[in-house]
Design goal:
about 140 residues, mainly beta, five-stranded antiparallel beta sheet, globular, binds thymidine-5'-diphosphate
């Protein structure tokens, strides 16, 4: 996968004077079955999360509150996405290096994943990631 496979996905937005509502359904809005949901919160200013690639996991990331940047790298090119609204999210396919930074105070990052948690799915070494991209094994 490369950066061309990354997409911003707009979610339904039900505008209502009582407060707005958005939702996400697997397959209708996401190209994968949701097997896990987790969220990042209380991130101290200046902290960076991520800093790894997944061999198999696809993710969809929403800024439910506040804002943060997602930096993606396919081994050839890097791109930065700023997420700051709860009615769209970022689809990140497997095999990309990802970092998250610049979290605003009280930001809440909601992440949907295509796999249950598996430590073995992580690549933590950037040089190994580059090697795998170059030899086509990722
Ligand atoms: P990690 O994925 O490295 O966090 P991030 O990429 O956001 O910096 O996970 C941090 C810790 O949390 C690590 O010890 C594994 C654990 N963890 C789970 O147990 N289940 C999960 O679904 C996730 C995402 C993390």
């Amino acid at each position: 996968m490369n950066l061309d496979d990354v997409k911003i996905i707009d979610l339904p937005k039900i505008l209502d004077a009582r407060g707005n509502l958005s939702f996400v359904e697997q397959f209708t809005h996401l190209p994968f079955a949701i097997q896990r949901t987790y969220w990042l919160y209380d991130v101290p200013g200046g902290e960076c999360r991520g800093g790894h690639a997944y061999r198999n996991t696809q993710e969809f990331i929403i800024a439910l509150s506040g804002s943060f940047d997602v930096l993606l790298d396919d081994g050839f090119e890097k791109r930065k996405y700023t997420l700051n609204r709860s009615y769209y999210g970022l689809y990140v396919p497997q095999g990309l290096w990802r970092e998250m930074e610049n979290f605003s105070t009280n930001s809440l990052a909601l992440e949907f994943a295509s796999t249950p948690y598996d430590e073995g799915d992580y690549i933590y070494d950037y040089q190994e990631f580059i090697k795998m991209k170059n030899n086509g094994s990722l």
